[in-house]
Amino acid sequence: MLEIRNLHVKLEEEDKAILKGVDLTVEAGKVHAIMGPNGSGKSTLSYVLAGREGYEVTEGSVTLLGKDLLEMEPEERAAAGLFLAFQYPVEIPGVGNMTFLRTAYNAQRKARGEPEVSAAEFLKIVREKAKALKIDAEMLKRPVNVGFSGGEKKRNEILQMAVLEPKMCILDETDSGLDVDAMKLVAEGVNALRDAGRAFLVITHYQRLLDHIAPDVVHIMADGRIVKTGGPELALEVERNGYSDILAEVA
Amino acid sequence: MLAPIRTRKTPQKLEAAEALLAARPAPEGEARWAREARAAAEARLREMGAPARRDEYWKYTDPAPLLQPAPDAAPAMADDEGPLWAGTDALRLVFVDGVFRPDLSDDPRMEGVEIAPLSEALAADIHWAADLFGRLEAEGQSQVERPLAALNTACAAQGFAIRATGKAARPIDLRYVHEDPRADAMVRNLVRLEPGAELTLLEEGAVAARANMCLEVSLAEGARLHHVRAQGRDHERVGAAHIFALLDAEASFKSFTLTANGRLTRNETVVRLAGDGASAHLAGACVGDGAFLHDDTVFITHDAVGCESRQVFKKVLREGARGVFQGKILVRPGAQKTDGYQLSQGLLLTENAEFDSKPELEIYADDVACSHGSTVGAVDETALFYLRSRGIPADAARNMLVLAFLDEAVAEIEDEALADVVRARVAAWLERRSR
Ligand SMILES: Nc1ncnc2c1ncn2[C@@H]1O[C@H](COP(=O)(O)OP(=O)(O)O)[C@@H](O)[C@H]1O
Ligand SMILES: [Mg+2]
Fold first, then answer.
1. pLDDT tens track for B31-66
2. CB contact under 8 A, A75 and B382
3. How many domains is chain B built from?
4. Is any Cβ of chain B less than 8 angstroms from the Cβ of A110?
């Protein structure tokens, strides 16, 4: 599904290398987790995959379903099946949540040569998915993320993912700032989407989300590299001993 | 305090005023009271002189194009978009190049509303308009000189006098069609709403190559006027439009203006809240590029207890376009419990655009809540990336953010259906521009 080869990234504005050779392959149907201390480059990796400006790829390659991801505009990546649930979802005053979602949904369909859906049809699609995430009609009417609590913002990200049905889902610290109930809702939302044709890259600082979304593979990221890869037990190790033991071991 | 600001009378200003008057003979056949009002306005203009760049009130906007003969301003293609309110059920009064055309208009009759062409009203010996015509304009001169409004009182022969005694069954739509590329128009409308009356007044169209528009509004106790205006999008047109509104107790005046294009647009709105609990909401949304200058100049006087005023002005500017906002809230002694709010914002889509804002508060009462904010900035790149990351192409995403920016002003239109007409029109403009 997603193949990252020796990815090196620096900031465009200054000479600061952030990713220093990331290698990662995520297969269809699998859930991979990336854990790592703050500042290790997890969010940067997710932004570079989604196509945010401000970063320069100095080496390496990324393909999604065999296509060169780095050549594409952010909207083309989305239409190709990539989705990033932001660590900090953006507030957009004046743009209704529903209008935003429908515009995105139809833009992706159009890009793929599929017919657009009417507002009424779309409402049906969204209502059902919103219900499962306990997102009420009021939240759908409000401007995107404006005045949403931390938990509402994260649930809104998952709603967008559920509606857009991407193939490669990247979740950047979707668990941060959530209470246990909200986290369960988010995890249920993710689990409901697990499918043989879909893959997940779950970035998290803590083990607790992984109690609810069982990963197939766990990677530890430090200083811009994947320093260790293992099974779910690796996450438990981090939970027990923190990152210091693992980092000392690979140093 | 409250000393009127008077400009320095240079010979040029005085000569320019003479030239403005000479170009337009005063209409004939009017009643004595109307002739007197005209003569008084003429004297005011002679005394003030024409506006000049040196005047403080014209610091950001050069009035010269308004003083010159009408430019050659080809009307925007008639068939590339229909009149804004074409789909709105309204009593339509059509002007072509600033001249009323009964043959193109609806029968001007509506229950509870008197609608008379200005020439008819000003020819009548006794008419309610005598209490209004030129009176509010003259009062509006007391703090700042507004010579082009005096010119309008002295010379304007076209327009309507509208008086409502009840709740109007449907809106009145003044449609100003522009045909002759060099048309020079002057239009004066008078609106009087008696106690408790309610009316929606729509205006639309480019009017002419050069237009001098003036609207005097007098609202009696509890009366409500909704005013939604769209200034047409001919590129070369120049225009000045004045609104003078006087509100009695509990009256409400809501006015929204949409502007696209035009080389120079100066919209002055002068409101006096004279009765307790009156409320005025003024809003404007404009989009322009190139040789575009749009100036909103607002003066609100709080002159009674517990009145509310609200201003929301938004401008989207690119490629050389300039936006100006001058907004003053004056709270007179005794105008306690005043609630004044003012927001002016410029969104610059390219670096070579400019937005100048001059908010002013002058407060002579102590129990007052007034706030103002003014910002200028570019499109939020983080928001743009967020939209694109969900699959929305860059142009469409940018347009969404521009519409969202303007929507704070558009949302001031109370009638949702009218607001949606405005939204759709702006969206179509943006889409066409990005194609
Ligand atoms: N736009 C930026 N400007 C400056 N420093 C940045 C920027 N983006 C990331 N960094 C730096 O790169 C490093 C990795 O950050 P990030 O990817 O956010 O880490 P993580 O998500 O693992 O906490 C940090 O040292 C951070 O300060
Ligand atoms: Mg992060």
1. 999 999 999 999 999 999 999 999 999 999 999 999
2. no
3. 1
4. no
